[in-house]
Amino acid sequence: xxxxxxxxxxxxxxxxxxxxxxxxxxxxxxxxxxxxxxxxxxxxxxxxxxxxxxxxxxxxxxxxxxxxxxxxxxxxxxxxxxxxxxxxxxxxxxxxxxxxxxxxxxxxxxxxxxxxxxxxxxxxxxxxxxxxxxxxxxxxxxxxxxxxxxxxxxxxxxxxxxxxxxxxxxxxxxxxxxxxxxxxxxxxxxxxxxxxxxxxxxxxxxxxxxxxxxxxxxxxxxxxxxxxxxxxxxxxxxxxxxxxxxxxxxxxxxxxxxxxxxxxxxxxxxxxxxxxxxxxxxxxxxxxxxxxxxxxxxxxxxxxxxxxxxxxxxxxxxxxxxxxxxxxxxxxxxxxxxxxxxxxxxxxxxxxxxxxxxxxxxxxxxxxxxxxxxxxxxxxxxxxxxxxxxxxxxxxxxxxxxxxxxxxxxxxxxxxxxxxxxxxxxxxxxxxxxxxxxxxxxxxxxxxxxxxxxxxxxxxxxxxxxxxxxxxxxxxxxxxxxxxxxxxxxxxxxxxxxxxxxxxxxxxxxxxxxxxxxxxxxxxxxxxxxxxxxxxxxxxxxxxxxxxxxxxxxxxxxxx
Amino acid sequence: xxxxxxxxxxxxxxxxxxxxxxxxxxxxxxxxxxxxxxxxxxxxxxxxxxxxxxxxxxxxxxxxxxxxxxxxxx
Lengths: 560, 74
Prior knowledge:
The complex is a heterodimer of chains A (about 550) and B (about 70). Chain A is built from 21 helices and 3 strands. Chain A has helices spanning about 5-20, 20-45, 70-85, 95-110, 115-135, 140-170, 185-195, 205-210, 215-220, 225-235, 240-260, 265-285, 285-320, 335-350, 355-370, 370-400, 415-430, 435, 450-470, 485-530, 535-560; strands spanning about 55, 60, 480. Chain A has a two-stranded antiparallel sheet with strand order 1-2. The termini of chain A are far apart. Chain B is mainly alpha-helical. Chain B is about 65% helix and about 5% strand. Chain B contains 2 helices and 1 strand. Chain B has helices at about 1-25, 40-60; one strand at about 65.
């Protein structure tokens, strides 16, 4: 068996799809994740003996580190890549297949990376390739979002790079495990926070993810934030600050999601919220906590991907992005409704679906560490999740007040199949949690389905429905957007520059005024000296000539 | 119609709280876990509170017209 890094297979595929005819492109899209999976098996077998190091300027770097934590993420990335490729199989566009192959490949490379430098290189390929996925011909605003996304991620990359340079110059180890909170550690920590989308560094996410094509946004929803979660699990497991940041992200995301009108922006805020859950688990740092955090990352890739697929299908059918433009879609395509509801119930933690399994793990981890406030907060956030995704979005898109669009495009079979496949995986993990637990980094002794777990969960969900019904008449969708921290670089930056330029502007005004006054004075003096001649016409050019000769004089002097 | 749905949901909630009383005998770790039907309370009150929190924040502070960022700063 050839031992090749699975990432490079995706890179090759990413180039090939640009060159080959459509039918071959489809074959490549379906085959690449499967072959990468096979390749990975050989790779695991040979990982110990292969020369998986590379050197640069005398430094030795390791390309690969394989352990259960990394493998968990690689497996779910491959599975999800296959399902998303299937979803977009009908598309004629080459941009998304090419960019997504690079994106998936670099995400896998980042997860398998053996040290920080290798991680950084794949991290940057991820940033560039994912930026291409934001570009959407149907949405004029996407290009601006793309540039803002790049701006934020390149800034994050600079933090990461500075941290690495500090480590290299001080000859500290550049391994990824258990990073300390020194200066280099903090720089790297901040760059991880940016990629994980933790408030207040999250605004790039709900700004950019809703802009892509229905197909492109599915990839976006899955990889960047989860690679960051993985990096946290490697480098900063057990850091208490992560519990606080995670809880903040969870509440922040869910409150913003409730205000949102654009479907995919609502879901994007739920990425912020769910990543908060994962970060909490990793901050707790016990084996149970890390299992919960990483397990929830896997679950989230699946059910959030499914939700993006279903809303993508609605966009494909109608060309509309906003809840206020939709309504009555339940009559148009029953399957999309079914798949959407599976994703929505999974993210809400409904028993028999995967969200329930991993959320229970996290609540148990919090309970074990006697973090009562955390457990209560996470339950509260779960209520908001159910409310905004399973009730609000579903109600306004599939039933709702408005009639909804008249003309509908049919959803192709491959989209239905991809959604069905993802739903089945969500169900399978939910029904057979023990088989899923075997993939988690540490051993799990958890009973997911006891009456003590199931009855309270159902109570929570049913009571939320009751609350929703009681206040439904106060809820309306509006054509508005909500301010978020991206205001600081979209509007605040103008004000800041304005303030910065104020002294310069005042100086310029002062020079102008003084110059004009001195011109007038000189004219006046000349006029007095030569009372019978019209001297104004001569005075001004004269002064300009004097100034010019002065500048030329200085320039010549400086040149000598 | 809507009235019926509300009544059904209310009955379902009550049934679940009763079954919690009958079948669940887990040791409470935190004070709020001692309240019967605490999850139902979190769901009902927490949900309504979240809705009003979000609406309030939006109405009074955060909502802007959709072209807000397209208009240039003056």
